[in-house]
Structures are given as C-alpha cells and as structure tokens.
C-alpha cells in the first residue's frame, strides 16, 4: 500500500512500514514471518490427519 508506506500480508497478520526499504530488499523479517506461519500451518495439517 504505497499511499500508507505499508506492506501487509493479511494471511499471516504482518504489517511492515517503510516501503522503500522493502523495495530495496530489506525483507528478511517478512520471509521469516511467512516461513514460520506456513511451517506451523503444515504441522497443524499433519496433526489433523494423524
């Protein structure tokens, strides 16, 4: 969301401000948050099948 200088991923509940830094590649925290969320989701699905 450029007008608000914000990146939001509603799937994982992450909001990050400072879009210029994100566009310059400062996204490690976004990657970690996504990885953590999707790993937890995969684990929940495995447990539900067990």
Walkthrough of the structure:
- The protein is of the alpha+beta class.
- It has one domain (2-49).
- Helix content is 54%, strand content 16%.
- Strands 1-2 form a two-stranded antiparallel sheet.
Order of helices and strands: EEHH
Q: What is the topology, as strand order, of the major beta sheet?
A: 1-2
User: Whole-number average pLDDT?
Assistant: 96
> Tally the helices: what do you get?
2
Shape by Cα distribution: elongated
Distance between the termini: 40 Å
Task: Pick out the low-confidence regions.
Answer: none
Provide the descriptors you would attach to this structure in a database record.
54% helix, 2 helices, alpha+beta, two-stranded antiparallel ribbon, 16% strand, 50 residues
Task: Provide the fold topology.
Blueprint: E1 6-9, E2 14-17, H1 19-23, H2 28-49
Outline:
This protein is α+β, with helices and mostly antiparallel strands and 50 residues long. It is 54% helix and 16% strand.
